[in-house]
Amino acid sequence: MSEFIHLHTHTHYSMQSSTIMPGELFAECQKLDMAAVGVTDYSSMFNMPELFSYAKKHEVKLIIGAELFLVPGAMTEKKEQVLYHLILLVKNETGYKNLCKILSAAARDGFYKQMPRADFNLIQKNAEGLICLTACREGELSQYILKDEIDKARDFVARYKNLFQDDFYIEMHSHNAPDDARLNEAKIALAKEFGIKLVATNDVHYLKKEDAQYQDALQALKNKQTLSSPNRNRLPTEHFYLKTPDEMARMFDNAQGELVNTLEIAEKCTFVFNDQQPHLPHFPIPSEFENDEAYLRHLTYEGAKKKYGDLDAMGEKGAEVRERIEYELSIICKMGYATYFLIVSDLISASREMGYSVGPGRGSAAGSIVAYLTNITQVDPIKYKLLFERFLNPERVSMPDIDIDFTPVGKQRVLDYTIKKYGAASVAKVIAVGTLGAKAAIRDVGRVLDINLQTVDKIAKLVPGKPGMTLSKAADQVKEFAELESSPEQKIQKLMKFAKALEGRARNVSMHAAAVVVTDGPVEEVVPLYVSNKIETEERRYIDEFDEKSEKEKGKGKSGDDQKQVVTQFDKDWIEKAGLLKIDYLGLETLAVVDETLRLIQKRYGVTIDLESVPIDDKKAYKIFQEGKMAGIFQFESQGMQQYMMKLRPTVIGDIIAMSALYRPGALNARIDENRNAVDLFVDRKNGREKIEYMHPMLAEILEETYGVIVYQEQVMLVSQVMGGFSLAKADNLRKAMGKKKPEIMAKFKDEFVEGAVEKSVDKAVATGIFDLMAEFAGYGFNKSHSAAYGILAYWTAYLKAHYTAEFMAAILNSEAGDTARMKHLTDEAKSMGIAILPPSINHSDALFMVEDIEKGKKAIRVGFSAIKHVGGAAREIVRSRWRRKEPFADLFDLCSTVDLRVVNKKALECLIEAGALDEFDENRAKLIGNLPKAVEYGQKRNKSATLGQEGFFNDENFFADKADAYPEMEEFEPWPDAEKLEREKNLIGFYVSTHPLEPYRRDYEAFATIKLSDKDIQNKRLQKVIGVIVETKKHFDKKGNEMMFGVIEDFTGKADFTVFASVYEKFESVLKKDSIILLVAEAELQEGQIKLLVNEALPIQSVRERFISGIVLRLDSSDESCLGKAAKVKEICEENQGGIPLNFEVIIEEGDEQQLLQLFSRNISVQAENEVLDKFAAVVGEEFVKIRA
């Protein structure tokens, strides 16, 4: 072993100050025969368990520590102070706890301008078990020496010597810097004067000398500089690398004492971080129960009574449930996790008691019957054949992982509950360490090297946007990208080289979106804490906007250091090693939609729905999936999923659960043959287009529910158990090994599986083939427990949508307020399901979308004020004012004199008018806008008068006696053209509400348009007719200099981009104008779920009917008593409006219980095809029975 070790080493966790990856550090130390190494990242011990894992792997002792930022004054003072550096190393368990406290306090209490700061008082209180080194040239001692403040240097040395005694060492450096000799000479003198040992260190920021250039670039990136920036911050020499013992000896002229003292320190440091026992908080239980295990057993069997009934009276079913309960409880209690289940069950109960829904389950926890019976999940694992071992494997000791879906508001409420119950010191969020990904490395290095942004962007876009993508993988997959490494341009070569060197390095820290730890004492005694500035979460904004219950909970709009959130310094992957209970509190918007829907149902019908009790075989719910009515259906909304569900036509819950598992990249990319993937195979087998076959009869029962296709990880586990003789715990280990695709482990399992299968009389070749099939499946197989929970939630949303369409769609519209494209899609689907969309109304709208009853038992959704841009907080004031006066607003002047015009300001009123919310005052919106200044002035004077306690202006008590007489006279204004009126409305709401520009031409649209722009199943490259309004145009010149055009056309259902090449544009330029309503004859193609059009021809809507009409069809019902009378009236209309368009009839004839449609073609009746004539026909037979035939 060498007689020197490094004690002052930075890894990449020093945040853009070091390029060293932990694995590389320990491998290099092992190579250099160094017995130990001290890691001292800046003010942190980020992911310390990771460092210890590499230390163990490479048999190198880790001395953990940190380099602190120290201020001379109080660290809590929020003001600029000099920052000094100081090294603290951990000797033992006490030292570790004390360093955790120091780092936590520096971050929590001393954080200023993105810097955690400590002070001497903090160190003094927590010095036990720590070794102190004086740090680098930025250390307090070095700074005093450089400033010739020797008295201050002596005071410093005396103070720290007194505090740390023999555990205080003066660091000496030799980085080949100009001041090194001067610093070392002074330090030697001080060490001699105070009897303090010297220690030689190298301030290590990169592994090898040649890596200096990469560290330089990383530091430039941190400081937002380029390598060409003058006077930029950088290390002074290229000697800040992991030097060999021989190099260190030469740098210090073989001063052995300083080198050997590093070994003395290493011997003092005995702290080793092993996997910790769980630090579960105390859970209060009723006094009649002996312990947590007994109480969990009680709750489980109480849950069994409620969910199953009397187990003793249920025969075999009851015995099966009891056996499963006992098996799970024995494992849970043996592994010491009873308290964990009680804690999680309590959190979920708290959410429900507060009125916030919780998801039916998430992840593998849905496979536990104990979780089901203690209301942690709402998925019966016996009914759905879910496996407990997928959740908690007795052969693989690890903390359970239960993730919980709350509503966004419920998430915050339950977090507040957690803090109140266990104490703020015992609860913390978890850090997320952001690293430089492949694309980011290219872009960031490009900036540092000052390479043209367009060039860098082009290179970055060559990197595939797949999860886990690296620059090496990109080079393997993209030839053009690989060739850049040997580019003739030196800058490009340098870019690629530097990007690879910096990829994967830590870039920043933030707060994990969901993970929370709860401990049996202060978190900082187990892991150090840090702060993240990301406190302004979506959930908190949601509370601020919609919940007025607690002003205390509202964010105050603070920024910077005041907006800090305490987080652990270990991320989610390493926190378990510290024995901390981690729970993921996830905010799921779908649950908020479900809650709002249930609230509306209760309010409107007095019905309370228990979703867990709704029938799982409801035909109307399955019809939602079969017809592709997926808007708002949890996890089934994507266009691809919509198409698959329409092909699958699910009829049982198993189909939905399977699609929840299958519709993922693995299965979609798994080729069964040239034309099909794994999802296509499942669909074909479900619908009988392919015979269901099993490789062996043993597989039939396991794969029957998925039509012989392996879909779930649990199916692999069951096959391994039934055929290979594995225990389910061992089968779970196989499942995990398959996921990681480790050949040596897979080979061992394969031999065991085949051997076990042969013992059960399975042919060896068949067993081998089945194992290979399972191994292939591992590429896309999914967790059935998770799929079941999410499939059930999807079914619940479909059930609500099918039975309470208006309420469900109103709820989801409220959740999507602000996303205009999404709201348009939702309102279109609502209309397609028979729900009218009513425009905003000053006297009928609420702040949110609301359901109203209209004629003949039909329902409608009224647009809420919050959907109108720039209205915002004015919505509440309008609703409150209307409620207080208990009568509708009469007109514009009445409105302005009633509401608080400081809240409902002029801008908000303008937007309300343009959105159509004041149409009941006057449908001439231009007139309302023109008179608004007068009305606002009137309202302000009247409000001021009321505030002053006056009866009227100028003390005239009769001034407002008759308000109508007091109003100023309304001026007349020319109404806006319909196109302008609708465009203003759409700009504010996001979609047309009062009407649609196409509405006057709906008959033509239905007759002549061959596709709708929302269609997802079209034949590509086929000529289609599209009718719509042009909403965007952009002229362009092609390579030959000829003018062409790009544009966007919109119909009733959606939008599509279109392209008009120069030869076509020349012919139809006069027609292709913004706001024009036209018919395009175009080649249509579906690209990424959106229709793209290549235009061949364009016609103004006015000439479409003349060009394409072949006839008019009227439908009559022979069973209608007035049928003959209607026929007579039709004849009169025909005689009065003779023309050139054939008129034909369809007559409905009833024969018993069936109806037949008799088509009558007339050669003698021809009429005019103008709308006036068609309106007359519609008045007689009904609009729905008048059709134009193309």
UniProtKB/TrEMBL annotation:
Domain Polymerase/histidinol phosphatase N-terminal: 5-72
Keyword Nucleotidyltransferase in record: yes
SUPFAM superfamilies attached to this UniProt entry: PHP domain-like
Enzyme class: transferase
Keyword annotations from UniProtKB, A to Z: DNA replication, DNA-directed DNA polymerase, Nucleotidyltransferase, Transferase
Catalytic function, reaction form: DNA(n) + a 2'-deoxyribonucleoside 5'-triphosphate = DNA(n+1) + diphosphate
Origin: domain of life: Bacteria
Keyword Nucleotidyltransferase attributed: yes
A molecular-function term among this protein's GO annotations: 3'-5' exonuclease activity
This enzyme's EC code(s): 2.7.7.7
Pfam families reported in the protein's UniProt record: DNA_pol3_alpha (PF07733), DNA_pol3_finger (PF17657), HHH_6 (PF14579), PHP (PF02811)
GO BP annotation list: DNA replication
PANTHER family given in the database record: DNA POLYMERASE III SUBUNIT ALPHA
Name of the protein in its database record: DNA polymerase III subunit alpha
Native species: Chloroherpeton thalassium (strain ATCC 35110 / GB-78)
